[in-house]
Automatic annotation (TrEMBL), chain A:
It catalyses: ATP + H2O = ADP + phosphate + H(+). PANTHER family: MOLECULAR CHAPERONE MKKS, SYNDROMES PUTATIVE CHAPERONIN-RELATED. Keywords: ATP-binding, Chaperone, Cytoplasm, Cytoskeleton, Hydrolase, Nucleotide-binding, Nucleus. Belongs to the TCP-1 chaperonin family. InterPro entries: Cpn60/GroEL/TCP-1, GroEL-like_apical_dom_sf, GROEL-like_equatorial_sf, MKKS, TCP-1-like_intermed_sf. One of its GO terms (biological process) is developmental process involved in reproduction. Component of a complex composed at least of MKKS, BBS10, BBS12, TCP1, CCT2, CCT3, CCT4, CCT5 and CCT8. Interacts with STUB1. Interacts with BBS2 (via coiled coil domain). Interacts with CCDC28B. Interacts with BBS12. Interacts with SMARCC1, a component of the SWI/SNF complexes; the interaction takes place predominantly in the cytoplasm and may modulate SMARCC1 location. Interacts with DLEC1. GO terms for cellular component: centrosome; cytosol; kinociliary basal body; nucleus. One of its GO terms (molecular function) is ATP binding. This is Molecular chaperone MKKS. It is found in: Cytoplasm, Cytoskeleton, Microtubule organizing center, Centrosome; Cytoplasm, Cytosol; Nucleus. Its main location: cytoplasm. Probable molecular chaperone that assists the folding of proteins upon ATP hydrolysis. Plays a role in the assembly of BBSome, a complex involved in ciliogenesis regulating transports vesicles to the cilia. May play a role in protein processing in limb, cardiac and reproductive system development. May play a role in cytokinesis. Component of the chaperonin-containing T-complex (TRiC), a molecular chaperone complex that assists the folding of actin, tubulin and other proteins upon ATP hydrolysis. The TRiC complex mediates the folding of WRAP53/TCAB1, thereby regulating telomere maintenance. As part of the TRiC complex may play a role in the assembly of BBSome, a complex involved in ciliogenesis regulating transports vesicles to the cilia.
Automatic annotation (TrEMBL), chain B:
Belongs to the TCP-1 chaperonin family. One of its GO terms (cellular component) is cilium. It catalyses: ATP + H2O = ADP + phosphate + H(+). This is BBSome complex assembly protein BBS10. InterPro entries: BBS10 (IPR042619), Cpn60/GroEL/TCP-1 (IPR002423), GroEL-like_apical_dom_sf (IPR027409), GROEL-like_equatorial_sf (IPR027413), TCP-1-like_intermed_sf (IPR027410). Keywords: ATP-binding, Cell projection, Chaperone, Hydrolase, Nucleotide-binding. It comes from the Eukaryota.
Length: 570, 720
């Protein structure tokens, strides 16, 4: 009988956003995320007082998963950022900062939530339709026939994660590796529906980053002794592979719900072993060269197979099963007898390899869509960060393959977008308001809050006391170092905009980002030659940023709409 | 141990509780409502505007609050809507009742009540009121709905007979519904999504059974995906199972599937049996037999073109392997709900592996359009293109949102919308009592009330002479004249034409309006009189109004009164021919499916208006009192809806406009474009009245300080 307990009454609070406690916690969270943002972002060290390992990071996914958030409003914010990151990997900090900024800016205005939410939604759809339109001045097409743009994209991701502690040379090396690993997962002769392969990241700690490498196929780690025991396979043709998903240890399988009575003197173990050896005989007669088993192989069977020059490897684990199935083209075998000949697969070759102190059994595929990225780093913390970064970069490349566009990075997209919205709301407010009940003044107020929220996101790229400027032609971002002498001649102080597309030699006029400025029309439609010539651009993933923008505004709207918080105290 | 409450105090206490609840729900009621964030004990957060959810999340301890919450949740279970309105209405009712008790400082008291004040004072007991409430709900409310309100009803169907539904009217209905249930920036999108889903699932023959199916299996028919913007939500054809394939073999063309509920591989022993192993060889042979048998079954399935195996249990490795070898995709561990949904859609019984193996055809297979993995945000699902045999075309809703809490809110709202539609598509039976004694000429028509009274004098004077008394229903002036001629024809009528004609111009503006309007409204509504009425109708008909089309029928009543009656004895209509002395009669009628009214408190204001009129004609003080209280409390709902509006759209303006339109017989103009279900509103009203009755009948609350114990069921004892 279950024990019933009286439930404690819940705690009900009205107008949660107005309380001082919520404001402080929100601003603390905002300070944490803004200080992490960008290439010069500060690192956070997260550690548990009770022990466990220390994490040094500036990435939203690692940061937010370690933070223990208790207030329900913050929980909404952090979970929505985490959910965004788990689907798009990138732009987590951007989403979090933008959301915090929006909430803060709008609260200051004191308009009714209805108006705010309605107008925020209009502004969001304005942004989205602009970023998706042909005339958009801050996105460039990604050309898959050359590696240039793709490398820029990967490099931008690597440089924005300072906790990886990469030097310039290492960054170049790892970017190239990531791109290679990604390209290896694309099937060579794909028609119509493309199914991407997989890059497996293999940890190799205590090695220099520069030693990292990419290999086609799968690496199975094993001890040196085990590896020595494996017989060298010398064969010119492809090797025949059998992959077992069932146990070959001689366990007696499920016997049903009733009872099984074994008479005295009958040894089931022997019976099962006989069965296993029969299986071994079948494998040998089918000319199988390599037997892989997810679980344990009985030593006698192993020995039997070795005697017949068949390599047997067991305890592969469930994670490698899917890539192995894909790579070798086998059907995982779940039977101890009568194996269909179709179930066997093949590999081109196998070899043993040694990287650092680790020994691997290397399966080389006939046709590679599976590859292994051996990732080296000197310590655990940076390796974790590097691994996360590599995964992000690989995911971003996949997203870019689906939607072959990239946004200009380095904050230029945000400032450009803000300039565009200012211009739009100033010159054409009717088209935004349409049949709504909101007034133009309300629109101006909210648009200003929205734009300054976008601009303070990029404002937080600067951590060293420098100034951020924007030009009045393209609406791009330019940053000046902290100790620059005077403001007279910007052209000499500035060299390149944030994304690297424009340089200061053009006749441009600049103004401080934080100062109020007149709306201007940012130049739309990027000239093609401009994109082609620039080889060292900072780029962002379009898909991830679009979603981040939407999630940030939707979450901010959600939080602004709250009138009560009911906390269950059970 | 015991804490008692005075009987009169219970209304006060209930009012206090209801006012607290009202404060919470009123912040999220209507199109301007806001969100409430609830945390679960597990730490998850839920966003909600669903009144029922909020009330449950509060974990209220106050006994009266718990009674209220119970009533709300049982109401929601049935209708899926109206929890917030429930609380607001209940609160206003309690306020009205409370105001009556301290009458000294009561400004709300109206003249009618004062007239009957003395009587009321004597029987001012809660029990009495609750009885009056029950009487009102069971005998009067339906009549008012049927006779007055029904003329304002619109139908959601573009053709009433075939019940065809056009998209635009469904959109109006759903948009209004979602306005109160989901966030302001999403209600349009969600209502479009629901509309899409609705029209994609329905065939032209689909009826209410589709709503029932969707309502019952809503959890299985939607998939939540976090981390994507809400606008990525969509409707996809086919069924999505929330698990991955155990084996997936791409297949196209003629795909057949089977459902199994047990393992296909034969086992050594079944439950209750014993398997004796005498030798190792025997064991090996059995193993071999099992293997061969499994292989043969899978091969046989393959030969029958079965390419998909759905299993409610986990299948052994062997089965999975042979399925893969034979190109059969396998999905394991389906929940019982998923299995029953699939079986309901395609009408398929589970496949049982044949004991004695033969090459016969397997009958329990179904054709599938496609069967493929579906990847939603890097999670894999099984996507099945079932070919439905019932009127439901299988479709699934993919709900996206930045956080799970928001997805749950949308899921909840969609589910509620289906519940609401399910109710809307049903006819609603109305049963009520009309009274035609001398004391309460309140029955159906006010116009003849005075003439009825004019009978009274001679009636009582003459003692035992039976007097036929007419309540007539006519559609227009022409027929009114006809009625008058009928009246003339009847020899024993005391009343003359002149009297009748003079009465009409003399009546108050409201009354004249009622004359025309009530007549029209009654003819508009299809009233089904029971068969027993027929002879009565034919014999005594004074006015029999029909219209050309068969949609409109008669609404007619004719009751014979004698002066000795009036005790209030109630007898079924069927006996009336024999017992000429009855003064009350049961009428049953029905409100056709699909009745809607424009949103924005129209239902409440209309009912308020007619109730006040009714109360004016009422002679019994309790009835008057109850009608007045309900009528006034009803206004609380539109007042809450228009709370934030100013100027032309403020509540007083809307109210005055509506009442003026009613009095001058002009069509009602609504400031908002949505529609709402009348059935839902009606059910809400009755639920609240039942809840109030429940509260009023409690006179003592006993606190028991002991852990709650599970109530043992009598039946379960028997089972043991």
């Amino acid at each position: 009988m279950s024990r019933l307990e009286a439930k404690k009454p819940s705690l009900c609070k009205s107008e949660p956003l107005t309380t001082e406690r919520v404001r402080t916690t929100l601003s603390v969270l905002k300070r944490i995320v803004t200080s992490c943002y960008g290439p010069s972002g500060r690192l956070k060290q997260l550690h548990n007082g009770f022990g466990g390992y220390v994490c040094t990071t500036s990435q939203s996914s690692a940061l937010l998963s370690h933070l223990l958030v208790t207030h329900p409003i913050l929980k909404i914010l952090t979970t929505s950022v985490q959910n965004h990151v788990s689907s798009f990997s990138d732009c987590g900090l951007f989403t979090a900062i933008l959301c915090c900024n929006l909430i803060e800016n709008v609260q200051r205005l004191g308009l009714t939530p209805t108006t705010v939410i309605r107008l925020n939604k209009h502004l969001l759809s304005l942004c989205i339709s602009y970023l998706k339109s042909e005339t958009c001045g801050c996105r460039i097409p990604v050309d898959f026939s050359s590696t240039q743009t793709l490398l820029c994209l990967v490099r931008s991701i690597l440089t924005s994660k300072p906790a990886c502690m990469l030097t310039r040379k290492e960054t170049e090396h790892v970017s190239a590796l990531i791109l290679r690993a990604f390209l290896l997962t694309i099937p060579e002769n794909a028609e119509g529906h493309i199914i991407l392969g997989k890059s497996l990241i293999v940890p190799l700690k205590d090695q220099r980053v520069i030693d990292s490498t990419v290999l086609p196929g799968i690496l199975i780690e094993m001890s040196e002794v085990q590896l020595m025991r494996l017989l060298p396979i010398k064969k010119s043709a492809a090797l025949k592979v059998a992959l077992f998903c069932t146990t070959l240890s001689g366990d007696i399988s499920d016997t049903g719900e009733g009872t099984v009575v074994v008479s005295y003197g009958v040894s089931l173990e022997n019976a099962v072993l006989d069965q296993l050896l029969n299986l071994g005989r079948q494998l040998v007669s089918d000319h199988v060269d390599l037997v892989l088993c997810q679980k344990v192989i009985h030593p006698s069977l192993k020995q039997f197979l070795n005697m017949h020059r068949v390599t047997a490897i067991d305890r592969i684990g469930v994670t490698l099963m899917e890539p192995l199935t894909k790579m070798t083209g086998t059907q995982p075998i779940g039977s101890l007898g009568s194996i269909s000949p179709n179930s066997y697969g093949s590999v081109k070759d196998v070899c043993t390899a040694k990287f650092g102190s680790k020994h691997f059994f290397h399966l080389i595929p006939n046709e590679a869509t599976i590859c292994s990225l051996l990732l080296c780093s000197r310590n655990d913390t940076t390796w974790d960060e590097l691994k996360l970064t590599c995964q992000t970069a690989l995911h971003v490349l996949q997203l870019t393959l689906k939607e072959p566009w990239a946004l200009l990075g380095g904050g230029c997209t945000e400032t450009h977008l803000a300039a565009y919205i200012r211009h739009k709301t100033h010159n054409d407010p009717e088209s935004i308001l349409k049949d709504d009940e909101c007034t133009q003044t309300e629109l101006q107020l909210i648009a200003e809050a929205f734009c300054s929220a976008l601009e303070s996101v990029v404002g937080s790229l600067e951590h060293d006391g420098g100034e951020i400027l924007t030009d009045m032609k393209y609406g791009h971002l330019w940053s000046v170092q902290a100790d620059s002498p005077c403001v007279a001649n910007w052209q000499d102080l500035l060299s390149q905009c944030g994304c690297g597309l424009y340089n200061s030699q053009e006749e441009l006029s600049w103004s401080f980002l934080r100062s109020t400025h007149h709306p201007f029309v940012p130049q739309t439609c990027l000239p093609h030659e401009a994109v082609g010539s620039a080889s060292n651009l900072t780029l962002d993933c379009l898909t991830a940023k679009l979603s981040g923008l939407q999630v940030a505004v939707e979450t901010a709207n959600l939080i602004l709409d709250l009138s009560y918080v009911i906390e269950d105290k059970n | 141990m015991l804490s008692s409450m005075a009987a009169a105090g219970s209304v006060k206490a209930a009012l206090q509780v209801a006012e607290v609840l009202e404060a919470i729900v009123s912040c999220c009621v209507g199109p301007e409502g806001r969100q409430v964030l609830c945390t679960k004990p597990t730490g998850e957060v839920l966003l909600s505007r669903n009144g029922g959810r909020l009330l449950e999340a509060l974990h209220l301890q106050h006994p009266i609050a718990r009674v209220i919450v119970d009533c709300v949740s049982s109401h929601l279970k049935k209708t899926g809507d109206g929890a917030k309105t429930f609380i607001i209405f209940l609160c206003h009712l309690l306020r009205g009742l409370h105001a009556i008790t301290d009458r000294e400082k009561d400004p709300l008291m109206c003249e009618n009540i004062q007239t009957h004040g003395r009587h009321w004072k004597n029987c001012c007991q809660w029990k009495f009121i609750s009885q009056a409430l029950v009487t009102f709900q069971t005998q009067i409310l339906d009549g008012i709905m049927d006779q007055y309100l029904s003329r304002h009803f619109l139908s959601i169907f573009s053709s009433a007979k075939e019940r065809t539904l056009c998209r635009s009217s469904l959109e109006l209905l759903l948009e209004a519904y979602f306005c109160g249930r989901v966030g302001r920036n999403n209600h349009k999108f969600i209502s479009q999504l629901m509309c899409d889903y609705f029209f994609k699932c329905m065939t032209c023959k689909s009826g209410i059974d589709v709503f029932e199916l969707v309502d019952d299996y809503f959890v299985e028919l939607n998939v939540g995906v976090t981390g994507l913007p809400v606008s990525d939500s969509r409707v996809i054809a086919g069924l999505v199972l929330q698990k991955d394939f155990s084996v997936y073999c791409p297949a196209d063309g003629d795909i057949r599937m089977v459902i199994v509920t047990e393992t296909i591989q034969p086992l050594f022993s079944t439950s209750g049996s014993e398997f004796i192993l005498n030798s190792e060889a025997q064991f090996q042979t059995s193993q071999f037999w099992i293997m061969e048998k499994t292989k043969a079954i899978m091969k046989h399935l393959r030969s029958q073109n079965v390419k998909l195996l759905l299993s409610s249990v986990k299948q052994p490795d062997l089965v999975i392997y042979y399925a893969g070898v034979n190109g059969i995709s396998v999905v394991e561990c389906l929940s019982s709900e998923e299995v029953s949904l699939i079986r309901r859609i395609i009408d398929l019984s589970p496949f049982v592996p044949p004991q004695a193996f033969s090459q016969c055809e397997i009958s329990n297979t179904a054709l599938v359009k496609f069967c493929k993995p579906l990847i939603l945000r890097s999670k894999r699902y099984v996507h099945l293109g079932l070919i439905g045999t019932c009127t439901f075309i299988p479709h699934c809703v993919v709900l996206c949102g930045p956080v799970q809490g928001l997805i749950e809110q949308h899921e909840d709202a969609l589910h509620g919308a289906f519940k609401m539609l399910r109710q809307l598509f049903k006819d609603l039976d109305l049963n009520y009592v009309t009274q035609t004694s001398d004391q309460n000429g309140t029955s159906s028509l006010f116009i003849y009330k005075n003439s009825g009274e004019s009978y009274q004098a001679p009636d009582t004077g003459k003692g035992s002479i039976q007097m036929p008394y007419q309540d007539t229903v006519v559609e227009n002036k022409d027929e009114l004249e006809k009625t008058q001629t009928y009246l003339k024809v009847h020899s024993n009528l005391v009343i003359s034409d002149v009297e009748l004609e003079t009465y009409i111009p003399y009546s108050t503006p409201t009354d004249t309006f009622q004359t025309d309007e009530t007549l029209k409204c009654l003819s508009l509504e299809r009233n089904r009189l029971t068969d027993d009425y027929e002879p009565l109708l034919k014999n005594n008909s004074t006015a029999y109004s029909t219209r050309g089309n068969n949609r409109i029928d008669i609404s007619y009543e004719n009751l014979q009164v004698t002066d000795i009656t009036g005790k209030g004895s109630m007898l079924p209509v069927s006996c009336k021919l024999q017992n000429m002395g009855t003064s009350q009669s049961y009428l049953s009628s029905s409100m056709p499916a699909g009745c809607v009214l424009p949103v924005g408190g129209n239902f409440e204001i209309l009912l308020h208006y007619y109730l006040l009129n009714y109360a004016k004609k009422c002679h019994q003080s309790e009835e008057t009192m109850v009608s007045m209280i309900i009528a006034n409390a009803l206004l609380g709902i539109p007042r809450a809806l228009y709370k934030s509006k100013t100027g032309k759209y403020s509540f007083p303006h809307i109210y005055i406009r509506t009442v003026h339109a009613l009095q001058t017989n002009q069509p009602l103009v609504s400031s908002q474009t949505g529609l709402e279900s009348v059935t839902g509103k009606y059910q809400l009203l009755t639920s609240v009245l039942q809840c109030l009755t429940k509260i009023l009948t409690i006179d003592l609350v006993i606190t028991v300080k002991r852990h709650p114990q599970k109530v043992h069921n009598q039946d379960s004892e028997d089972e043991l």
